Amino acid sequence: MQPNWRKLFLYNDFRDSPQKNTIGFALISRRSFVKLSALLVSGANTFLASCSTLLWKGSSRPFAPLNCPSAAGNKFDYIIIGSGAGGGPLACNLALKGFRVLLLEAGGEDDPCEYYVPAFHARASEHEALRWDFFVRHYADDEQQKRDDKFVPEQNGVLYPRSGTLGGCTAHNAMLLIYPHNSDWDYIAEKTGDESWHSEHMQKYFKRMERCEYARRAEEPDSRHGFEGWLPTNLAEREMLLRDKVLRKLSKAALEESLSGIINPIKRTLLKIKTHGDPNDWRFIRRRPEGLCKIPITTRQGRRAGAREYILRVRKQCPNFLEVRTHALAKRILLDEQNKAYGVEYISGAHQYRADPRHGTATPGTVETVLAEREVIVSAGAFNTPQLLKLSGIGPREELVGHAIEVKVDLPGVGENLQDRYELGVVTRLRENIPLIKGMKLRCPAPGEAPDSQFSQWLRDEGPYTTNGATIALMKRSFPERPDPDLFIFGLIGDFRGYYPGYANNIARTENAFTWAILKGHTANTAGRVTLRSADPRDVPDINFHYFSEGTNAGEDMESLVAGVEAVRNIVRLSSDVIEEEVLPGPEVKSREDIRSFIKNQAWGHHASCTCKMGAATDPMAVVDSRFRVYGTRNLRIVDASVFPKIPGFFIASSIYMISEKACDVISEDAERIQV
After folding, report:
1. What's the whole-number average pLDDT of the chain?
2. How far apart are the C-alpha atoms of 244 and 432, rounded to whole Å?
3. Following DSSP, what letter does each residue of 61-87 receive, concatenated?
4. Residue 136: closest CA among 446, 640, 492, 540
5. What is the SS3 string spanning 118-174?
6. Which pLDDT tens digit goes with each residue over 596-648?
7. What is the phi-psi region of residue 503: left when phi exceeds 0, alpha when psi lies from -120 to 50, beta otherwise?
8. Which residue segments constitute the domains of the chain, with CATH numbers given?
């Protein structure tokens, strides 16, 4: 019999032992860069060892009781569809402001062991109780699409893991929380003419939500970290890296690569010392730095932390203000003759959506209707939000008519502008096994089975399972003229080649595989689309990202990725004493043209966004205004990844969390002006 994982690891039941995470960066001489480089590279052993003298253990404090409002009515002020990074925190924050909120989640509330253990995030994404399986196209051209090793002919697409559970994709993501670039917010401010989106104003939302457990409070005025928010952030145990000789050598090579081509190296090195290489430190953020950085993750005492934990806390302590209905698949938004949203029609029942792996055994659901006194807010994500709008009669006229859907608002931008990162994996085989993962099973123990040593460590809030598998990270400009660093390169323990059915089982097949993941930020392709397959809300929509040759600005993104592969190959060359060979792309991929072909065939993404973009009223493809309101409607907003006009930062979760916080302010302001 499996343990009751929620009982063991429920958010409010975490032990209040000190967090084992650390921060710190080696002190480096301020002499000339030549001497600096020589010191850092040839004396890298000293560099890494010296980190241990500067380690500072953070602290994990218990949450104070929530300040719940005193009274609630018997009607819902707001209905929010979707409990992920956008909708979940928004529901909680509105409830804490005294509004009565109904949160609808199409998935369930299952909590297997894989949910809690950070290192098992890949297994969480393939757990049938948590997952929705989308199969997407990267190309319309069949021959090009079939060149992808991850293509599944039976599904006519490539697996794109999504989460159908409370907390949305924050229930299976890799938990990285990296602050977006300031240019992302400034772009929205410019395009909408709304200065409240300017980066100087947006930073307060990150600080409001963050509960930083690794930085020193004494540095708060300069670092602008938040310490009282609802979202705990921590770092991987740096002691693990220092103790493992293989990972230590790989880190040296990454360090040397990070110094090559860097602009103002001495100035930037001093900045790294001052900010401890923390990508969420404001001093670091505003300088657009390159080079090695730390990897903040959303964990608390070694357990995943995210939207779900916040929802559970608020629901438990303020039940009169937040009601959560799971297994509630939204069918359509109810609009009156003036296109005012007044409610939601949904299908009540488990496994109703056809992306759910257990849909085939589901019993038919029942159709329910719920009404909102104030507004309906859609937070269903970049695929399901445009699908729901179209099913409700909001979208491109021609497409809606083709599916016999009554056109309420002709909005041609709904489902267009789909964007994503491009990602690649350079997989290597090491000359020896990684000591840190000796005997690792990378899974939860089966009933009656003794856990591996790493799982036993995790039960004590320590060891490699407390992190997400990312050990080393660096930010880099693919070319000097890029305004922001656009490559995020990070080392992962295991063999990771992208997403395909069963990929989680293959990551840890051997103890000597190491992957350098390359993530291309600020991608230029806006040609992706989400279109209806049918008028049935249970059907998954058609999704095509139209990569590279089928997209926009294909050459710019391609050349940046080629530069990323070349940077990783330089790291591999510098660490040839521990790396036996490159497995993927492999030695047969030699020339830049070979690399381009590899990228075109094998790239993937996992940060879908921008399908209901924010823009000015003069933009015919804009779907929402700067206050998240859907054009052509009343009392209807969208708060999720779909509203970005351009995909922000490196990892999208932080940006979604931030706009969720902003949306709460905007909605509350409007509520003060409008009495119901």
Report:
1. 89
2. 12
3. PPPPPP---S---SS-SEEEE--STTH
4. 540
5. HHHHHHHHCCCCCEEEEEEECCCCHHHHCCCCCEEHHHCEEEEEEECECCHHHHCCC
6. 999 999 999 999 999 999 999 999 999 999 999 999 999 999 999 999 999 99
7. alpha
8. 78-173+307-418+609-674 (3.50.50.60)
Tens-digit pLDDT profile for residues 538-590: 999 999 999 999 999 878 999 999 999 999 999 999 999 999 999 999 999 99
442 Cβ contact list (under 8 Å, min separation 6)? 119, 120, 123, 494, 507, 508
Indicate the helix (H) or strand (E) that contains 57. strand 56-57
Helices (H) and strands (E) in the chain, counts: 22, 28
Ramachandran quadrant class, 179 (left: phi over 0; alpha: psi -120 to 50; beta: rest) = beta
Q: Is the pLDDT of residue 675 over 80?
A: no
Instruction: Show the tokens assigned to 284.
Output: 């670091």
> 517 near 423, Cβ under 8 Å?
yes
Radius of gyration of the chain from its Cα atoms, rounded to whole angstroms: 24
- Bridge partners for 133 per DSSP: 161
pLDDT at 22 over 50: no
DSSP β-bridge partners for residue 505: none
Convert the pLDDT of each residue in 291-341 to its tens digit: 889 999 999 999 999 999 999 999 999 999 999 999 999 999 999 999 999
* HEC readout, 330-395: EEEEEECCCCEEEEEEEEECCCCCCCCCCHHHCCCCEEEEEECCCEEEECCHHHHHHHHHHHCCEE
Q: Is 5 helix (H, G, I), strand (E, B) or coil?
A: helix
Strands (E), 181-307: 210-212, 231-235, 291-292, 296-297, 299-300, 303-304
Rounded to whole angstroms, how far apart are CA atoms 330 and 89? 19
Question: Which of these, 617, 623, 627, lies nearest to 662 by C-alpha position?
Answer: 627
SS3 of 397-432: HHHHHHCCCCCCEECCCCCCCEECCEEEEEEEEECC
Q: Do residues 145 and 137 lie in contact, with contact meaning Cβ atoms separated by under 8 Å?
A: yes
* Token output for 356: 């759910």
Digit-coded pLDDT (tens) for 79-126: 999 999 999 999 999 999 999 999 999 999 999 999 999 999 999 999
Return the sign of the alpha-carbon dihedral for residues 193, 194, 200, 203: negative
Q: Which of the pair, 509 or 32, is modelled with greater confidence?
A: 509
Nearest CA among 582, 580, 602 for reference residue 590: 582
User: Which carries the bigger pLDDT value, residue 48 or residue 247?
Assistant: 247
Q: How far is CA 674 from the centre of its chain?
A: 35
- Band of residue 54 on the pLDDT scale cut at 50, 70, 90: very low
Structural contact between residues 353 and 303, judged by C-beta atoms closer than 8 angstroms: no
pLDDT at 239: 65
**Are residues 381 and 162 in contact, defined by beta-carbon separation less than 8 angstroms?**
yes
Cα gap 320→531, rounded to integer Å: 38
**DSSP-based three-state secondary structure for 222:** helix
